[in-house]
Design a protein that fits this description.
Length: about 800
C-alpha cells in the first residue's frame, strides 16, 4: 500500500499542494505541456496558473534528401564584424551592406574564444558557469553569400543550422528568421518565399557570447567557444515531401528476424491533390540480404498525413560493439512524376534491463566507457569527421567500448559510433541546474533541447541510453518539489519521443554536506558520480538515503520501493576517475581528486601508479558487480585552447584531465586504462606444484558476442631469474568460452628452461597475448608462475611507472 501510494505521488503533475518544507508550490501539468510542445508550429510563450511562464520553440525539421544536388553547404569563409558595432544589427545583416572590408574566417569554427581572462582575478564578475563577466551585448555578426542552384526552381527550400554556439539570431536576405538559444541542437527555417533558385542568397547570424539560458549548454567545458559549432546548409525538396519520420529498428525475440516500422509524415505544399507511393527498402551493407515494402498514398492540396509502413528481413546479423553489423534503410516517395529518397544506416540489437541486469542480444553487457567532450584543438566545438574518426579509433585501441557524451555530441559522433561499434550514452543538454531546475521559465528551453537532441539521433543504433542532463539537483528544500517534478516531466518527454531506450539522470558528486548521490528517483538506470559509497550501501543493506536538495534534506528508500517506482535495479557511474594528469608530472600523487579513498599528496608514489591502483579499484568494483552496466571514466580528453600564460593550452575548468592530450597523443595513463579495460583479464600469478605439467588459471570472457575459441591465445615463456622477461618462442593454446562465462585455462609448460626454473624454485613469466578474430590485440599480460613455496609473494599490487621497484 505504501509503495503504491509513493508511485501515485510521483505521478502527480497538475496539483498545487503544501509540502513539508514550507509554502504552496506550483506543480506544472507536465502532460499538458508535453502535448503543447509536440504540437507547436510557431514559437510561443505559455503561462501557468501562478502567472509564471516559459518560452516554447518548435523543433521539427524536414529530413534532407539523399544526393548532393539537394543540398548546398554554407561551410567555408564567412565575413565577420565584432562587437561593439558601428551600425545596427539589422543594417549589418542587410543585403545591401558592403562587407568586402570585413575580416574572413572559416565556419564552422571559432569566432571567439569566449573567456577573455588571463587571470580570473583580474576580470570583474568572472564566472565560467553563469558568464556574468561577459557583456550580454557582446558577440559578432557573420555573413555568407551563396548562389542557389537553378535546378531548385519550384522546390521547397530550407535553411538548416546543426548548431550555433552558444546562441544566434538568424537572417536570410535581410529578413529576421528567429533566434536559436539552444546552442547544441539543430534548427531550421522554411525560406522558400525568401530566396530564388539561380540567384544569390545572403545568410547572416548575429552571434551572442552569452544569454539567459546559456548554463544549460555547459560553457564551463566548451570554454565558451563562439561560432557555428556544426555544419550549416540549404536543402531542397519537392512540393510534396517527406516532412518527418520515426521508424524503429527492432530485432524479434528469436534474434534472427529484423523489422523497421513506424510512421512517415507527408505534406503536400502543392496546389492540387496527388497520389503515389511510399516505399521502404532494407538492405544489408556489404551483403546480399534485402527487402522492401510500399504503401499507396493520396494527399489533398495543403494537407498532411501520417502513413504507417514496415519492412522485415530474415535472417539479420546483430549489431554490437564487437561486430557492428549495419543495414541501409531507404525511404522513397514517388508521386507527381518524381521520386525523392532519404537514407540512413541502422543496426538490429536487443538491449534490455531485466532481472536487475543489462543484456544485449540476450547476453550480459558491460560498458567500458569514457566521457567524451566535444572539442577540437583548432576548431573548438567543431570536430571534422576525419579527426573525430581518428579520436574514436584511438578509443577502440584503448579497449573503450562506450561513450557518455558530456554535453550533446555532434551528429557525426553517433554515425561513427554506429559504424565503428561504440555504445553511446547521449547526454541531453540540461547542465548544472541547481539555480534553475525548479524555475518554470526554464522548462520550455529544456524541452527544446530534449526534443532537438532526441529527434536528431534516435535513428542511430549505437545510442543505448538517453542521459538526461548533468548534475541537476534543486538548490534548497523550498523548491525541491518543483525541481523533481520538472525532472520527471523531462523523463516522460524523452520516453514519449523515443519509447525504445532507457533513461538516466546523472547526479552531482560528493560536495559540502553530501557524501554522494545514487540517483534512483528519476530514470530507468541509477547513476552515481565520483563515489561508490551509496552503491555499496544499497547493495549491502537494501536501503538508500539520498539528499532531495543541496541543503542535504535526506530521504530514505528501500531497494524494493525504488524498483516498484520504476528503477530497473541496474546502475552506472557516468563520471568517475578524474585526475589532473599533466603528462610531464611523473611524480604527482596529488593529481588524484574526488575519490572515496584520497591519495596522500606526499605518498611519494608516481602518478601512473596512483592512476592504475585507483582505476583497478574503482573500475574493478563496477566490472565485477553484475547489476552494474559499467562506467564512464572522466574524461577521455580535456578541451582547451591556446593563447594562455603557460605555453601549452588553457584547459576546461583549468585542469588537464584525460588519458590523451588535446591533440590525441596518448598519455601514460592511456596504457593503464587500456590494460584494465581489456574484456579479458588475466590473474597476476599462478601456483606451480612439483609434478605439474601445465599452468592453470581462470578467465572470464567479458565480450558480448565473441567466443574465446574465435580468438587466439598466444603464450610465451622463458627461464626465470632477472632475464625471465626475455622471450622469443611462442605457442598457441586453444580456449573455448562463451561470452559472459568462465573457463579454466590449461597452458602446457612447453619451454624446457621454464620447467627447469620452476623445479629450481624460481618464478617464471607466462606471457599471454590475446588476439581477437580481426587480429587486434586487446592485452598482453605476464602471469607470474610461482612455485608453491613462493605463493605468498605478489599479494600486494605490482608497482608500475618509471621508478617502480619490485
Amino acid at each position: 500500500m505504501i509503495s503504491s501510494l509513493r508511485r501515485l505521488i510521483y505521478g502527480l503533475t497538475s496539483l498545487v499542494f503544501y509540502n513539508q518544507y514550507g509554502g504552496d508550490r506550483m506543480i506544472i501539468d507536465g502532460d499538458k505541456l508535453i502535448e503543447q510542445q509536440l504540437s507547436l508550429t510557431t514559437a510561443t510563450i505559455t503561462t501557468f496558473e501562478d502567472g509564471s511562464s516559459t518560452p516554447l520553440t518548435p523543433v521539427r525539421m524536414v529530413p534532407p534528401l539523399a544526393g548532393a544536388e539537394t543540398q548546398l553547404s554554407l561551410n567555408g569563409e564567412w565575413s565577420v564584424s565584432r562587437w561593439p558595432f558601428k551600425q545596427s544589427i539589422d543594417a549589418l545583416c542587410a543585403v545591401d551592406t558592403n562587407d568586402s572590408a570585413w575580416p574572413r574566417l572559416a565556419q564552422p569554427g571559432i569566432v571567439f574564444y569566449g573567456d577573455p581572462e588571463e587571470n580570473p582575478a583580474t576580470v570583474k564578475n568572472w564566472n565560467r558557469v553563469s558568464m556574468t563577466h561577459i557583456d550580454p551585448e557582446d558577440g559578432a555578426v557573420i555573413r555568407r553569400l551563396v548562389t542557389l542552384p537553378t535546378s531548385w526552381k519550384g522546390k521547397r527550400i530550407y535553411l538548416r543550422f546543426n548548431a550555433i554556439y552558444p546562441a544566434g539570431i538568424v537572417y536570410c536576405n535581410g529578413r529576421k528568421l528567429g533566434e536559436q538559444t539552444s546552442g547544441l541542437t539543430p534548427i531550421e527555417w522554411d525560406v522558400t518565399d525568401l530566396v530564388a533558385p539561380g540567384q544569390q542568397a545572403l545568410v547572416a547570424v548575429r552571434l551572442l557570447r552569452t544569454h539567459k539560458f546559456v548554463k544549460m549548454d555547459m560553457p564551463r567545458h566548451a570554454l565558451e567557444f563562439t561560432g557555428l559549432a556544426q555544419d550549416a546548409f540549404f536543402h531542397a525538396t519537392e512540393p510534396v515531401q517527406i516532412a518527418d519520420y520515426h521508424l524503429i529498428s527492432k530485432v524479434e525475440d528469436d534474434l534472427k528476424s529484423g523489422c523497421v516500422s513506424g510512421s512517415v509524415k507527408l505534406r503536400n505544399h502543392g496546389r492540387g491533390p496527388v497520389s503515389g507511393q511510399v516505399r521502404i527498402t532494407l538492405a544489408e551493407i556489404g551483403g546480399t540480404g534485402a527487402a522492401s515494402a510500399c504503401a499507396d498514398i493520396q494527399l489533398d492540396a495543403g494537407a498532411a498525413a501520417d502513413v504507417d509502413i514496415a519492412v522485415g528481413l530474415a535472417p539479420v546479423n546483430l549489431w554490437n560493439a564487437e561486430i557492428p553489423a549495419l543495414y541501409k534503410v531507404t525511404l522513397a516517395l514517388d508521386c507527381a512524376g518524381c521520386s525523392q529518397e532519404i537514407s540512413w544506416r541502422t543496426g538490429f540489437r536487443k538491449f534490455e534491463l531485466r532481472d536487475e541486469r543489462a543484456w544485449l542480444n540476450d547476453r550480459p553487457v558491460k560498458f567500458r566507457g569514457v566521457n567524451h567532450l566535444t572539442y577540437h584543438p583548432e576548431h573548438g566545438m567543431y570536430t571534422p569527421k576525419p579527426w573525430l574518426r581518428e579520436c574514436l579509433t584511438l578509443m577502440k585501441k584503448a579497449n573503450v567500448n562506450a561513450i557518455r557524451t558530456h554535453f550533446l555530441g555532434p551528429p557525426a559522433l553517433a554515425e561513427l559510433c554506429d559504424e565503428l561499434g561504440i555504445y553511446l550514452m547521449q547526454e541531453l543538454p540540461i547542465d548544472w541546474g541547481t539555480n534553475y531546475i525548479h524555475d518554470p521559465e526554464w522548462v520550455g528551453p529544456a524541452m527544446q533541447r530534449l526534443e532537438g537532441s532526441v529527434r536528431r539521433d534516435r535513428h542511430c543504433c549505437s545510442i543505448m541510453v538517453w542521459s538526461v542532463g548533468n548534475e541537476n539537483m534543486p538548490q534548497d528544500a523550498k523548491v525541491a518539489d518543483q525541481g523533481w517534478n520538472h525532472m520527471r516531466i523531462y523523463d516522460r518527454f524523452v520516453k514519449r519521443l523515443d519509447p525504445t531506450r532507457p533513461t538516466m539522470f546523472p547526479p552531482p558528486g560528493p560536495a559540502n554536506k553530501i557524501k554522494g548521490i545514487f540517483e534512483v528517483r528519476v530514470g530507468d538506470i541509477a547513476d552515481t558520480h565520483y563515489s561508490f559509497n551509496l552503491a555499496r550501501e544499497i547493495a549491502e543493506t537494501g536501503k538508500l538515503t539520498n539528499p532531495r536538495s543541496w541543503e542535504a534534506d535526506m530521504e530514505t528508500v528501500t531497494r524494493e520501493e525504488a524498483i516498484e517506482r520504476g528503477w530497473s535495479g541496474v546502475w552506472f557511474s557516468s563520471e568517475y576517475g578524474i585526475m589532473n594528469m599533466i603528462p610531464d608530472l611523473l611524480h604527482a600523487p596529488y593529481a588524484s581528486i574526488i575519490t572515496d579513498t584520497p591519495e596522500d599528496p606526499l605518498s611519494g608514489k608516481n602518478t601512473l601508479e596512483v592512476f592504475y591502483q585507483r582505476l583497478a579499484h574503482e573500475w574493478g568494483y563496477m566490472r565485477d558487480d553484475p547489476t552494474c552496466l559499467g562506467g564512464a571514466y572522466f574524461p577521455w580528453l580535456c578541451s582547451g585552447t591556446g593563447n594562455n600564460p603557460w605555453g601549452w593550452t588553457r584547459w576546461g575548468e583549468d585542469a588537464d584531465w584525460g588519458v590523451v592530450t588535446a591533440d590525441l597523443l596518448p598519455k601514460p595513463a592511456f596504457w593503464a586504462l587500456r590494460v584494465l579495460f581489456s574484456p579479458v583479464q588475466f590473474p597476476r600469478k599462478a601456483i606451480w606444484r612439483p609434478g605439474d605439467e601445465e599452468i592453470t588459471f581462470d578467465l572470464h570472457n567479458g565480450y558480448n558476442a565473441i567466443d574465446l575459441k574465435e580468438c587466439t591465445l598466444r603464450t610465451m615463456m622463458s627461464g626465470g631469474g632477472r632475464y625471465m622477461g626475455m622471450m622469443r618462442e611462442w605457442r598457441d593454446v586453444h580456449v573455448t568460452c562463451a561470452p559472459g562465462h568462465d573457463v579454466t585455462v590449461h597452458v602446457p609448460i612447453w619451454n624446457e628452461s621454464s620447467r627447469k626454473s620452476l623445479a629450481d624454485g624460481s618464478a617464471i613469466a607466462c606471457r599471454c597475448i590475446l588476439l581477437e578474430p580481426n587480429g587486434f590485440r586487446p592485452i598482453t599480460w605476464d602471469v607470474i608462475v610461482m612455485p608453491e613455496a613462493l605463493s605468498n609473494e605478489l599479494d600486494e599490487v605490482l608497482p608500475v611507472g618509471p621508478d617502480a621497484v619490485l
